[in-house]
Amino acid sequence: MREVVKHLSEVNELDELKLAKPFLKWAGGKTQLLTSLQCYIPNSFVKYIEPFIGGGAFFFSLNHPNSIIADLNEELIITYGQVKDNVYSLIDILENYENNEESYYKIRALSTSKLSECERAARIIYLNKTCFNGLFRVNKKGEFNVPYGKRIGTFLNRENLIRASKYMEHTEILNLDYKETLKRFAQKGDFIFLDPPYQPIGGFSDFKRYTIDYFGENEQIELASLFKELVNMGCYVILTNSDVPFIVDLYKDFQIEIVETKRMISSNANTRLGKDIIVLGGL
Ligand SMILES: C[S@@+](CC[C@H](N)C(=O)[O-])C[C@H]1O[C@@H](n2cnc3c(N)ncnc32)[C@H](O)[C@@H]1O
């Protein structure tokens, strides 16, 4: 515990200078698009809402005190909640984990129904940092099934977890479908970032494995119609997706920027170039 207190005082001293970074690497992470996205942040807005939070790269870079973040993935949302409310106990658990193959498979095999929320969060952070390629992927039963990554170095960044905890002090964190989040909370003057599972390019996608719920063409159509509603309500809305004709057509009434990105191909570390679109509504 003394260790943590030391780190907390360090964070207090550094707080103004350094922002918290995402504490999980997530498929579809927005780090590459950050510079482009940051050009469209409105000068002023009431609250920030990100209903498909994933790794939250844009949320952390925004440094806004009043936000609502949500996702359908329960393990992910429990992890955000524990980082926010219980960061010292979480760090204590992580400090007892070791980065080796035997520990990895033991922790991976733990049944989440028998764990406390804090243990579940520690397990997700540990697996995310030590697994192969660092991507959260589950099988059809919703079980985390990525092999050990044989990565050297530490999986625990105490200082960043404490920073993230402080940053999220006034953030509301919800395990909800995006429609429900927006229906309950979106109001005129809010800034909303929509980063849904992308429409696959050329028929193959790893993205449907984010959650056990599939995000297909009908869901994309439904999302586009909600996008329009939000803009008509007076919200500032940014949406990202892949640059495919079906998606571009759904947003043809709005300003669309095209950005080149590197994408990781699902099961190996190779990359290929792809194009993302950024759709702007009310901005
Ligand atoms: C593209 S990822 C988000 C990437 C993230 N913004 C980042 O920077 O890392 C999409 C997220 O949407 C979530 N998701 C999928 N369907 C959803 C739904 N119907 N409602 C809310 N979240 C959903 C997935 O669990 C996943 O975390």
Keywords:
283 residues, alpha/beta
Task: Summarize the entry for a quick read.
The chain is an alpha/beta fold and 283 residues long. Helix content is 39%, strand content 15%. Bound molecules: S-adenosylmethionine.
Can you put this structure into words, describing what you see?
This protein is an alpha/beta fold. It has a single domain (2-281), classed as Rossmann fold (3-Layer(aba) Sandwich), CATH 3.40.50. It has eleven helices and seven strands. The protein has helices spanning 2-14, 34-38, 57-62, 74-85, 87-95, 101-109, 117-130, 158-167, 178-185, 217-233, 245-250, and strands at residues 48-50, 67-70, 172-174, 191-194, 236-242, 255-264, 271-281. Strands 3-2-1-4-5-7-6 form a seven-stranded mixed sheet, with helices on both faces. Strand 6 (255-264) and strand 7 form a beta hairpin. The model has no long low-confidence stretch (mean pLDDT 88).
SS element count, helices? 11
CATH top level is: Alpha Beta
CATH architecture grouping: 3-Layer(aba) Sandwich
Q: Helix share of residues?
A: 25-40%
Bound molecules: S-adenosylmethionine
Question: Could you say how many structural domains there are in total?
Answer: 1
Find the CATH topology.
Rossmann fold
The main β sheet shows up as: 7 strands, mixed
Give the topology, please.
Layout: H1 2-14, H2 34-38, E1 48-50, H3 57-62, E2 67-70, H4 74-85, H5 87-95, H6 101-109, H7 117-130, H8 158-167, E3 172-174, H9 178-185, E4 191-194, H10 217-233, E5 236-242, H11 245-250, E6 255-264, E7 271-281
Parallel strand pairs: 1-2, 1-4, 2-3, 4-5
Antiparallel strand pairs: 5-7, 6-7
Helix pairs in contact: 1-8, 4-7, 5-7
S-adenosylmethionine (SAM) is lined by residues 26, 28-30, 51-52, 54-57, 71-73, 177-178, 195-197, 210-211, 213, 215.
